[in-house]
Specification:
Blueprint (H helix, E strand, L loop, with lengths): L2 H24 L1 H7 L5 H17 L10
Length: about 70
């Protein structure tokens, strides 16, 4: 694994953590707030991941898609 991939995965993990906190505290409004910092598609995808974790207990996160 090279340094660029490692950095991308850390960034994706951080975005997922932020999206998770925003989504749990503010719902979709948090996703809209996050969309100011990343693209709306990324924000919606992160919200989908958080929802899947919440409702289905999915533990594998497809970081390469972010």
């Amino acid at each position: 694994m090279d340094l660029k991939t490692d950095h991308s995965e850390r960034k994706a993990s951080l975005l997922i953590m932020i999206a998770s906190i925003l989504y749990r505290t503010t719902g979709y409004l948090g996703v809209q707030l996050m969309a100011h910092y990343v693209s709306i598609l990324q924000a919606l995808f992160l919200a989908l991941i958080v929802s899947c974790h919440r409702y289905f207990g999915i533990s594998k996160i497809p970081l390469h898609l972010i």
